[in-house]
Amino acid sequence: MFDIEKARRDTPGCEKVLHFNNAGAALMPTGVRDAVVNHIDLEMMMGGYEAANRVAEPLAQVYTSTAKLLGCAADEVAIVESATNAWVNAFYAIPFKRGDRILTARAEYGANYVAFMQIAKQRGVQIDVIPVDEYGQVSVEALRGMIDERVKLIAITHIPTNGGLVNPAAAIGQVARESNILYLLDACQTIGQMPLNVQEVGCDMLSGTSRKFLRGPRGIGFLYVKRDLIPQLEPVTLDHDAAEWVAPDRYEIRKDARRFEKWESSIANRLGFGAAVDYALEWGLDAIWARVQEIASTLRIRLAEFPSITLQDLGVEKCGIVTFTVEGLASADIKAQLAKRGINVTVSGRGSTLLDMDARGLKEVVRASVHYYNTEAEIERFCEALKAIAV
Ligand SMILES: Cc1ncc(COP(=O)(O)O)c(C=O)c1O
Q1: Domain 31-282: assigned CATH number
Q2: I need a surface site. Which of 101, 255, 325, 361 has the fewest CB within 10 A?
Q3: What does pLDDT average to over the chain?
Q4: What pTM did the predictor assign?
């Protein structure tokens, strides 16, 4: 049994707000907040560089914990400022040439797709979108049929921002491995919500964030790069920590994934991120995933009872991101009305997943994303609030 009472005791925000915006940024547990604030206090009292020296060991441990979470080694992890930062660092380092193809998902994240289009414009690369299967997932069969010697990269968003879909990351990884094609996985909405092991998925690169289902502070993202691949990827931007300045006319790039970092960073946020990773590992990702699916499924069942509501989640195995539209009501109005009642949801707009939204004739959806600390009683309160706003 998942100890929800403990989860809520550790999460003071639960008393203040009904938080169904975990896919935006989840509520932090106290341990995460303490890790951040204690370090800020240390910086205030002894100086930023001196404080960083004091926490050198726990800081190094953040890489070890992240590696444990992802099933990789600590030298395959870079910690940066956001998931997008992690993703673009990896993507732009790939040596694309004219005629190369990128295969991607219909529900690919907006930031990633903009980067594809820029590289397509600059280098004459072709972007091909893999069709979806009958459940709205990336069709692995269609992917197989699209492979040829021109395919340089398969880049997939595992869990899209606009709904419950979980793309078949491991089956895609198998195709990538068999064809020896680079595989970049956007796991921004995945990590902290469900277990993911990079060896089992077979990805070469993976990006993620601290603030969403991991419940860490904002301003932190992370990148995994498979060890064998690191020497082949020269980051587009370097500093004198990513690359050592060894002679007046020469630099040597680091051999580990930290070549994708810059020297300056928020030590407090890094420590908070580490605390969030350790906290998730303590709960166990299998237990978290089971609880998230349970609570999301209850929410979907309750929402389906409203005649004016259409659930918009695709996929076979659905995650904690529950999206819907309401006949005759704008999503932004629903969000605002719920906010007045102390309930947080958000709106996912067309520009975040344009191809998928257009294919389904959607302009926007209300996104109610749950986490393990949410309760059935909160779902009831949520539904009562929806009734009150004439849904
Ligand atoms: C699927 C997906 N990828 C990437 C991102 C970008 O993450 P960040 O804002 O940390 O750069 C998001 C953010 O919502 C997302 O949902």
Answers
A1: 3.40.640.10
A2: 361
A3: 98
A4: 0.98
